[in-house]
Amino acid sequence: MKKRFIILFTLVSFFSCDSYLDEVPDNRQEVKTLDDVSELLVSAYSRATYNFVEAKSDNATYIIQNTQYPWMTENYTYVPVVSSEQQDTPTYFWDNTYNAIAHANQALVGLSEIDGGDDDFRNSLKGEALVSRAYNHFMLANIFALHYSEANKSALGIPYITAPETELSVSYERGGTLEETYNLIEKDLLEGLPLISDDYYVGTGKYHFNKSAAYAFASRFYLFKGDYVKCIEYSNKLLGGGRSEYKLYT
């Protein structure tokens, strides 16, 4: 009787272990379906603000009534921000934006591994991931590299990351030239933009790249690049469908 009890207990233990091991050990997202990819892409947008650049411009002034944090003074006086890595600091923006890029890259890998599903939905998700990756690199380039121009094309760009992260903390190698960075941004943008469809995010709020937002980004990208013909082309694609949809501020 005792031996039977021990055997029964052992079998129950094995079944319990199997059930435990079948469960995700933490709150990570398993990417098994196209809907999972869609949820993953919510994190492909940087949550970091870039208000810290205002302190380096004429948009900031010293107000004695407000609390003066060390990182504010560091920004205002053009010295490296070393006192904080929290929101509104260069380090936070860098880390959070590359984290968003990592999510976009993971989404692209997930799409390549998932079989079945609606092909139009798959293409739209791929387009969103590519445009999001392009936009995040664009923002990083305009904060941490020189402004794009013919004179600055050979200046140092930023690391352009196209693969998911496999480590918690990553130190990137130096990027290529600024021209190479912009070429990679343009490649992702032009590949992703035609794939984006507005059919799948109706009523979900303004946190996904839809067609209009992608056109707006393309217009801005070419404006910064100095290609004014393409800037006007994408501006017309954005606004030509109905100016009444947009508020024009002067």
Question: Would you mind describing this structure in some detail?
Answer:
With 250 residues, this protein is mainly α. It has a single domain, classed as Serine Threonine Protein Phosphatase 5, Tetratricopeptide repeat. It contains 8 helices and no strands. The relative contact order is 0.10. The mean pLDDT is 81.
Individual helix count: 8
Structural class by helix and strand composition: mainly alpha
Strand content: under 5%
* Largest sheet properties: none
What do the pLDDT scores average to? 81
Query: Do you know the CATH topology?
Result: Serine Threonine Protein Phosphatase 5, Tetratricopeptide repeat
Helix content: 40-55%
Would you list the SSEs in sequence order as H and E?
HHHHHHHH
How would you sum up this structure in a few lines?
This protein has 250 residues and is an all-alpha fold.
Secondary-structure map:
Layout: H1 2-22, H2 34-40, H3 70-76, H4 90-113, H5 119-144, H6 178-192, H7 211-225, H8 228-239
